[in-house]
Amino acid sequence: MKCQNIVFLAAIFVMTPSLMAQGSSNLPVSSSGKSFLVPQKQLHGTWVGQEDALIEEVTVTHKERLYRRLDVGVSGTLSGWVVKEGPRLDHFVSAPEFAFTQSGNHYRRFHGILRYEASRGSALTIIYPEDRTAWNGKLFVTVHGSSGSFEGGSLRPWNQLYDPSQPLADISKYEKLMLDRGYAVAKTRRNGGSPGDYPVTLDSGEVVQGKNLNVHTGLLLGFAQLAENLLKARLGETPRRTYWYGHSGGAMNGRLVNYIPEINADENGRPLIDGFLNDDSGGGRFLPVLMKDGEDSLLLLEEARRNFVRTIEISHQLYSRDLEVSDLPEWMSGVFLVNKRLTARILQDKGLGDRVRMYEVSGISHQGGEYLDYGRDGNIVILDLSRVMGALIDRLDDWVENGTTPPPTRSDLPALGDPNGDGINENPAIALPELSCPLGLFYQFPRSLGPGGSGQTGFALFDGQNLEPLDGRGVFVDMNLNRYLDHRESVEEAWQRLGLLNPGETFTRTRYQQCVQATVDQLKKAGLTTQRVVDLYLKEAATVEFP
Hints:
The N and C termini lie far apart (55 Å). The chain is α+β, with helices and mostly antiparallel strands. The chain has helices at 17-24, 96-99, 173-180, 217-235, 249-259, 302-306, 336-349, 386-402, 414-417, 433-436, 491-498, 509-525, 531-541; strands at residues 29-32, 41-43, 46-48, 50-62, 65-83, 109-116, 123-129, 138-143, 184-189, 198-202, 207-211, 241-247, 275-279, 291-292, 295-296, 311-316, 356-361, 376-377, 380-381, 440-444, 457-461. It contains 13 helices and 21 strands. The strands form five sheets. Strands 1, 4, 5, 6, 7, 8, 9, 10, 11, 12, 13, 16 and 17 form a 13-stranded mixed beta sheet that branches. The chain has a two-stranded antiparallel sheet with strand order 2-3. It folds into two domains: 10-417, Rossmann fold; 439-541, no CATH class.
C-alpha cells in the first residue's frame, strides 16, 4: 500500500444526499481542494509546489454505470530550466540534459521558477465509480502529447472542460477502456504547445515570457499524487497501483520518470508510478542515453536498473517523420521510427529486456483514432488502436501485479523481432486484420489535411478501377509498390501479389473470413487483443462491403 503524508478526516468528505442529488442533475458542485495538495518543497530558500486546487464535480454515466467526475484546477510553482537561443525556446523543462540535448540544443541553460495557473488550463479530470465495490483499487494517470495553449485557444480553463450535453466527450476510447476495467482515471491537462502561456523568473531576476510545460515531470508526478490524495479521501484508500499512459509528449515524460529513478519515489522509497504504457513517444525520444565526459552514464548501475519500472512501448510504424533539427547527438537518428527502435535496442543491451516490451503496430501514424467514431472523419481513416490498447492495459497490469511475462517485443526490424538471429522474424510488427487481410491501403497525409497531415492516415480501396490516389502533399500513393503511378489493383489482384491467394484462386467472402479468423486467433493467442475484439472483427467480416 502506498503511503501519503497527509491525513484525511473521512467524515468531512462523505457525500451528503443533497450534494449527490445536485451532482446527479448534471449541475457541477464546487469545492476547495487545498486539503489534498502535495506538500511543497523548499529550494534555495523558496517554497515550490502546488498552491491551490479548485474542484467541480458531477455524476456521469458510462455504459449504465454511475461515475463521479471531478474537474480539478491546479495552480502553483515549478523549478526548471529554459534556453535563450536555439530549438525549444518555448520549453520550460525539468530535465534539460535530455529535453534540450536530444532536441539539438546545446546552448546554455538557465534555471528559474514558473508559476502555472488553473485559469489558464492547468488541471486534471478524475473519474471513478460511484459504487466503491466497482473500483479495482488502481489508478491510471493519462498524459497527452505536445499540444494545448491557452493563448492559442486550444486549452480551456479548468472549469470549462465539462459539457453537460456530452459529459464524457473529452474522454478517449483508451480512457473508457480503463474505466470499463474498474480503474479510476486521472486525465492531466497542461500547456504543451505553442504559444507558451507562462513567464519564468530566472535566478538572476530576469523574466522570460511564453514558456510551456510540455516536458516537466514534476508537474505531472504532482498531479498523480494529488489524484491519489483525492481518491484516498473519496474511496477510503490510496490506489494500490498507479499506472501511467502517455501519448507522444506524454510518453516522452514517462520515459524520463523511468530514466531518473529518484524522482519516481514517495517518501518511503516506493514507486509513485508502478508501470508505464508509452504510446508512440514523440520523435522516438527520449533515448536512454546520458553522456558524461564522453561516456554514456545512464542505467549502468544495478540499483538504477532494479528501480526501472516495467514498461510497454507502443510504436506506430507509419509515423516516420524527421526531427527537422540540426546538431543532434551522433548516437541519435533524425528519423522517428529509427529512434523508437533504437530505444528498445539500447534498453535490451543495458540488461533491461526483462522490464521493457516494444510493440510496433503496422498501418498507423501518430494518431490512434481514440477520439474518432469508427476511426473516421471525412477522408481521414485511422486504424482503431483501441482494439489493441485494451489487451495492452491488461498485459501491463498482469505483469506488474503477478509477474506474468507479456509477449516478446514485436518489430519488423530483425534485430528486435528475430532475437535468435536465425534469419526468421518470429515476432514481426503487429498487423491487425485491416493490414493482414487488406481491402485497401492506409497512407499518411490524408488529402484534406495537406502537407501537415503526417500524423493522420487516409485509406485507399483496392477498387480495380481508379488511379492510385494523391495524398495531401500531391504525391501519389504507391499501393502496389511498383514505384510508378498506375491503376489500383482489385482486392483479388492485391491478395495474389501478397500471397494471400494462390495463382488463379478467387477472392470470396469465405476466404476473407478465414483470413480474419486466422489473424485474430493469432493475436488473441499472443495476448495482443481481447475476445471482445475478436468477436467484433468476426462480425464485421461477415458484413463488410467489398470494393
